[in-house]
Amino acid sequence: MAQSKLICAALLVVFGIFGTQAQQPCQTVTGMANLNATQLTGLWYETVQAPAANVGCVQLNVALANNNTQLVVTKWTSSSATSNYMNQFTNATVNVTDVNANTGFNFTYTKSPAKPNNATYKILDTDYKTYVTFCSYTSATDLTTSVGGILTSTVRPNSTWVVQLVNNTAPYLVNFNVSTVANVTQNNCYASSASTTLPLLSSVFAAFYLLIRVFN
After folding, report:
1. What residue ranges are annotated as transmembrane (predicted)?
2. pLDDT value at position 144?
């Protein structure tokens, strides 16, 4: 009898531990607490994503705008996972307070060619300098739209380190582990003559936005 009680107690401990880390889709997973979105500025490269995206060479530039109250995000991608030519870009502006709240901030992207694209994002973890782990979804009710990914500040980060980042996220984000994530191609990426000015583009958009605010 005593042995059975001991086993039951052990099971309760085990389920209690793993219950706090139950895997959830992005729609319900909890974002990183005490996030400071103003420290997310800079150039980021998407390293892995799950489910796999049909794009490659994903690069983002994040810049502050409107007296540091907003983030302007410019995202460049290729048209397919096998292409190195970054011929597509999206641009979005989001309030810093919405990002810091981290309960799911909405990005309305303007694509080139122009086509609105809505997605809700959460920052799951970051050290503000080398990586950002995030998730997103396009439908609050369709859990299959949940996506997870990792951004890094280097084009070709150490693979062992990336695996560790994935393992850190796997316990609480559904369908995000070393067997489901796909590497995002970053080799030999280019964007015609604009490739040398990618980091500058978001700053230009931010400045243009500020001018509009001033004269309106």
Report:
1. 190-212
2. 94
